[in-house]
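Standup notes
- DV: blocked on the single-chain target, sequence here:
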Amino acid sequence: MRRGRASGVFAAALISAAAPPSTAAMAADAAPQSGRWQWLARTYWYVPAEYLLAIASSPALKAPVPVSDQTVYYISHFAGGYFWGTTAVSYTRTSGAPASDAVSCLQLVGSVTPEGAVHLTFTPLGSKSAPSGSTSQSTVGVGTMTRQRYQWTMENQMSTVAVGSLLLSHWAYMYQCKPSEPCFAELPGVGVSVPDFLAPCAQAPGGG
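- DV (later): unblocked, structure below
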C-alpha cells in the first residue's frame, strides 16, 4: 500500500511540474515593467547635427526644399506612461525656402507604452519670440524608443504647419542631452546653450 501510494504522489508531482504555466503568468513574465520609462522625468532631448535636415513644402514653392530644424524637449514630469513639459523649435533655411531663426514654444504632452511606442502632442504657447504667422494648431508626432550608440533615443517623426502655408516634415533620432555634455553648452544648428534656447518658452504663458 505504501509503495502504491508513494508512486501515485510521485506521478502527480511529475504531471504538475510538466504542466505549462498559465497565460497570465506568461504575460506577467513577458510584459515590460510599466515604470521602465520613469527616468524620462527631468531630462532634456535635442536633435544631433546629422538629423537636423527637415523638408519644407508649400503651394507657394515650386518644389519641397531642405531646412535645418533644431528641436529641444524638456520633460518635466512622468506619470503612468505619460510625460509632459516644454518644447522649443527653431528652423533655418538651407536653400531657397522661407524660414525663421526665431524660437517657437510649445507645450509637450506625450505617452510611451511599456514596449516603447511614443505618441507626442505639441500645443503652441504664446511667446514674443514666435515667428510672425505661426500656426495655433496642435501638432501630433509618433515615434519609438530605440537604442543607438549604447543609449536610449526617441526615433520621432512629425509634420506641422510652421508659418502660413509652410508645412515642415521632420524625422530624427532625438538624443538625451545632459548638463555635462557639449550639446548642453552649444546646440547643433543654433549655436546657443540648452537653457538659452528654452528661455523664451519658460517665459511664455503655460511654459515650464
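- Follow-up: The chain is about 20% helix and 45% strand.
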